[in-house]
TrEMBL record:
Reactions catalysed according to its record: N(6)-hydroxy-dATP + H2O = N(6)-hydroxy-dAMP + diphosphate + H(+); XTP + H2O = XMP + diphosphate + H(+); ITP + H2O = IMP + diphosphate + H(+); dITP + H2O = dIMP + diphosphate + H(+)
Main EC class the enzyme belongs to: hydrolase
The entry's keywords: Cytoplasm, Hydrolase, Magnesium, Manganese, Metal-binding, Nucleotide metabolism, Nucleotide-binding, Nucleus
Domain of life: Eukaryota
Matching SUPFAM superfamilies: ITPase-like
Stated role: Pyrophosphatase that hydrolyzes non-canonical purine nucleotides such as inosine triphosphate (ITP), deoxyinosine triphosphate (dITP) or xanthosine 5'-triphosphate (XTP) to their respective monophosphate derivatives. The enzyme does not distinguish between the deoxy- and ribose forms. Probably excludes non-canonical purines from RNA and DNA precursor pools, thus preventing their incorporation into RNA and DNA and avoiding chromosomal lesions.
Nucleotide-binding found in the keyword field: yes
Nucleus as UniProt keyword: yes
Biological process terms in GO annotation: deoxyribonucleoside triphosphate catabolic process; nucleotide metabolic process
Name of the featured protein: Inosine triphosphate pyrophosphatase
Binding site for ITP: 14-19, 55, 71-72, 147-150, 170, 175-176
Cofactor remark: Binds 1 divalent metal cation per subunit; can use either Mg(2+) or Mn(2+).
Amino acid sequence: MPQFTAERPLTFVTGNAGKLREFKQILGDSFPIVNLAVDTEEIQEETLEKISEAKCRQAAAAVNGPVLVEDTALCFNALGGLPGAYIKWFLQKLGHDGLNKMLAGFEDKSAEAVCTFAYSAGPGQEVKIFQGRTDGRIVPARGPANFGWDPIFEEKASGMTYAEMEKDQKNKCSHRGKALVKVREFLESA
Ligand SMILES: O=P(O)(O)OP(=O)(O)OP(=O)(O)OC[C@H]1O[C@@H](n2cnc3c(O)ncnc32)[C@H](O)[C@@H]1O
Ligand SMILES: [Mg+2]
């Protein structure tokens, strides 16, 4: 375990309350973690790994210490993986109903939720990537609209939308939960 201390904690850089809430539920308080919202520039890139890596380098420079960032993508299979990393803007402009309508012309409503964490020990240090993926499909909204696109993502294995699940159930099967298992393994072995 890298020596995170109260003076030099691991900083989870995000401005998203839902992400932070789940992050804390999943990782608990096993070591000193603080949260900071740094406005990072989101680059346009081919791969989710490169987007998270760029975000991580900016965050490490801003914090000047160990950082963890994540980027979440929602990939519609009928659209070749789009909106992917651009889901935030599509959700903001179109809402749940509009996202469903985007797939109206396609039989295939399947989608993949992808969470990509990136860790750096500090500015100029190597960036480690941890990814979690969950299969599902896009459905008309069901369940409380507490977090992003949770009501319209029906997880494949359970047939429930993320929004219909108890928090523990979502965290066990979610893109974020799977990625954080890998993050924890790394932090515990490093
Ligand atoms: O500061 P950062 O960490 O970048 O936070 P963000 O809100 O900008 O997040 P992203 O760039 O990763 O955009 C992902 C979008 O998907 C949403 N989202 C992320 N994880 C989700 C989840 O588990 N369930 C539902 N919506 C989610 C999130 O609210 C955004 O609208
Ligand atoms: Mg963002």
